[in-house]
Amino acid sequence: MSYVVVSNLTKSFGDTLVFEKINFEIEQGEFITLLGPSGCGKSTLLRAIAGLNSVDSGGIYVNGENITYQDPGKRGIGMVFQSYALFPNMTAYENIAFGLKLQKLSKDEIAKRVNEVLDIVDLKGRENHYIDELSGGQRQRVALARALVVRPRILLLDEPLSALDAKIRKKLRVMIRKIQKELNLTTVFVTHDQEEAMTMSDRIFVMYGGKIVQNGTPSEVYRHPVNEFVASFMGNYNIFDESFMTEHFTNANGKYAIRPEAINIKVCDSKDKATKGLTNDAYNLIGNVSFISLLGNVVRYNVKVNDKELVVDSLNNSEVIKEGTRVSLTLPSGELQELKSNRE
Amino acid sequence: MSGLSLSEDSKNALHNESMAVKKLKKLFSYGLCLAPFMLFYLLFEVFPLVWVLVNSFVYEEEYSLENYMELFNSEFMTQAFENSLYLAIVSSIIALVLALLFINSIRTTNGKIKNILISLVNICSNFSGVPLAFAFIIILGVNGAVTLLLKNMGLIDGFNIYGSAGILTIYVYFQIPIAILLLYPAFDAVKEEWHEAARLLGATNCQYARKVVIPVLAPSIFGTFVILFANAIGAYASVYALTAGNYNVVTVRIAALVSGDIYLDPNLAAAISVILMVIMLIVVILNSLIIRRYNYVKNK
Amino acid sequence: MSKTNSRLYHNTVISIVIGILLLPIVATFLYSISTRWGATILPDGLTLNWYLKLLTEERFLWSFVRSLGVCFAAMGLCIVLMLPAIFVVYYRLRYLKFICNMIVILPFAVPPVVGSVGLIQIYSDGLLPISGTFWILIFTYFTVIIPFVYRSIVNSLEAINYVDMIDAAKLLGANTFKAFIYVVLPNLKKGLLSAIFISISILIGEFVFANILVGTRFETLQVYLYNTKAVSGHYSSALVIFYFAFIFVFTYLASVFSKVERKSVKRRKN
Does residue A85 surpass a pLDDT of 80? Predict the structure, then answer.
């Protein structure tokens, strides 16, 4: 049996269902991300695991032990809140030591363990500052240290980086992942940022409307989205409906998607023509570049094909095609993903 | 997983029972936190008001409207209401106008001076009641410094601080700081950029004031008026200390009927109190009807 | 309007309003330090005798002590009763906030004279005959300051992320009570201090309830002030200035603490 098992977990507030029949298993030392838009139930699910929200039915098991109805303080769970929830009346040191004090450990033991985590999160020298006197990134690390110092069985991170600016966020991503690997800490991370999810996780659970719609490694989820929602949430997928597919490629049922970087773009020769059907295992389209955005190493083209606008990414290593140019697009058939409907 | 599901049922059954106990404990702790406050609140805030309401309809130990009849038929009582209403309305309007002019002017000064002035006003807002009445006697009494000054300048023959003009002055005095403190934050909602934007669009100062500033401030102005009105019509200490209860206003009548030396009639006092509260209620309702016209200003 | 003209206009408005507000205070102060001041615009001579007399007058000192005693007792009672109630409502029963606001506004809306009509009748005899004693003052003053104490506590409660903080403390092993004591309460310190200073400066100036419900049987500062008006205007002025200096200090302290609060809220938001 896996280290963490969540089975049939269901929760509603009054008439609104927050999440329903959630099932998943997490191995010890795994880094899991619950990814989804706001309101998909991911934070409530996390809080249910922590014991801060009750559930209506189902069970949560850690190491075979049912913790579904246990008090939050007895579950052996550490959590970093989106707001950090640091105690402004205490210094960084006192914040971190709070949990150990409640365990009535000796002063020396507390000092030893606090200093250990201060080292881990690289906050040595800042421990006697009050929270008001720390920067955003430092506060975030105090919150992490406070959760780590009690040696939790599971670490829960509720959008811990969303209040920080981009640079610090990237640094802390790496730091959190490193610490997690070093301590072999089972971690559940909640975010709405797909980039964050992809760079940090062993596995991603994509949530939508109170359900986990896809569960897999970052590259699985990115390359093989199961439905339209995941496709549009994970990247700038081009999504083709039935009529577009039939008109330009082949007769099809349902929707298909393709990643913008999977499409080849080149300036149209006069002899290029849109051909329906496969040529060299790829489909062809002819369109006009309607908009160009430079994203650094990548150039993003918006290409108009009839009434449909496609997004095409290409590496920024050759001449950038000008707006208004007629271009031909090549879509390898193997890259076209069939999508299930969002309901399934 | 199959091993888990068996124990899950028995655990859930156990859990349901302990949940009921937990829920009871929870309710009990809520009660423990709320009950003491509610007890004192009921005893010393709600019951007295209920007593007033009920006993205003009791005349010689029978339910009747006699107290109210007596009120409306007594010229002395209707005069008290007239005086109170006059004082409340006029003092509120004068204080409002002065406060608006004052705030408009201090907005042009720099931050430090503004803060000092507002602190000064805040401190003056505590100067009311008996101490204020004394101060007024000293400066505006028969031999008060200001009275003498104005007399010497030939502006007045004499000033009767114990008459309606004197009492209106003291009401205006204690209303000004309250009006300023209540209205000052509302002016923060008027952004300087709006003025600039309006000027760029070609509005004159006057148009800007009429079309932008006043509509934005209107709800606050009406709201402040209600509080000033309530404050004035319920005021007692200043007028009592100034005239030793000889000026006829509603609050003085009420107090005389419950603690005077001559004639006690608490039920009549209760009836006056009820009318007083009804007047306040009418003003509040009128105000909310007026403010509804400005519902684009979202009040939290 | 030209620049200088408008400056002149604004300065005039400010000077007139501030002048009106300060005139009674300044005049009372002058009166309190003058030997004699009658029938002339300025006093005859200056003296500190009235203050000396004040500080050696036992009846005054006792009235002051009584006032302070009643004020602090009422304020203590109010905070002790309101803290748990506010906490439960804001942490667990948030749908009651709306009712709370109405409960809290009532003492503010009812004129003291009206309240005293019922109070004097209910507590003159019967189960709780406390009219005419300091008890009724303490309990009545408790109601007077409810709106102010509520506002101060709620302001500082809303300035912190108390729900997350309690959750965090719970995950670290605290129960709700411990979380409140260690994590929430210390952060309400400034709000409580501001509540204390506002309450005291309001209650020390309370005259209506004190005079109607208790009068000379338990003479408070304001009642004493009223009763000495026949003694000497100079003496009364010294008393007024003393009182004014007292509330000056307390309102100043209250504003300091509520300002600190606002600043820290701002900083947290940035």
Answer: yes
Residue C173: closest C-alpha in chain A: A73
Domains observed in chain A: 4-233 (3.40.50.300), 259-334 (2.40.50.140)
Residue B13 lies in a domain: yes
Q: How many other CB atoms are found less than 10 A from the CB of residue B277?
A: 20
The Cα of C238 is separated from the nearest Cα of chain A by a number of Å equal to 43
Does residue B163 lie within any of the structural domains?
Answer: yes
Find the CATH number of the domain harbouring B114: 1.10.3720.10
Q: Does B26 touch chain A (CB under 8 A)?
A: no
Question: Based on the domain organization, do C2 and C86 belong to the same domain?
Answer: no
pTM of the model: 0.86
Model confidence at A206, pLDDT cuts 50, 70, 90, reads very high
- Pair (C15, C129) in one structural domain: no
- Per-residue pLDDT, averaged over C160-186, amounts to 93
Inter-chain CB proximity C170 and A85 less than 8 Å: no
Residues 6+ apart with CB under 8 A from B228: B88, B91, B92, B95, B96, B175, B178, B179, B182
Residue C156's domain comprises 49-269
pLDDT band (50, 70, 90) for residue C270: very low
Question: C-alpha dihedral over B210, C8, C14, B117, to 10 degrees?
Answer: 110
Closest by Cβ to C170, choosing from A73, A82, A147: A73
Together in a domain, B247 and B276: yes
Which residue, among A270, A239, A271, A269, has the nearest Cα to A255 in the 3D structure? A239
Residue B49 has pLDDT above 90, yes or no: yes
Segments forming the whole domain that contains residue B217: 66-292
Query: To probe the interface with B, which of A66, A67, A70, A71 has the most B CB atoms within 10 Å?
Result: A66
Q: How many domains does chain C have?
A: 2
Tell me: do C65 and C38 sit in the same domain.
Answer: no
Chain B partners (3+ C-beta pairs within 8 A) = A, C
- In this prediction, residue A179 carries a pLDDT of 92
Structural domains counted in chain B: 2
For residue C200 the two structure tokens come to 């005291």
Region C119-128: mean pLDDT is 87
Å from C266 to nearest chain B CA? 16
Interface of C with A (CB under 8 A): 160-161, 164-165, 167-175, 178, 182-183, 186-187, 189, 264, 267-268
**Cβ contacts (< 8 Å) between C264 and chain A: which residues?**
88, 132
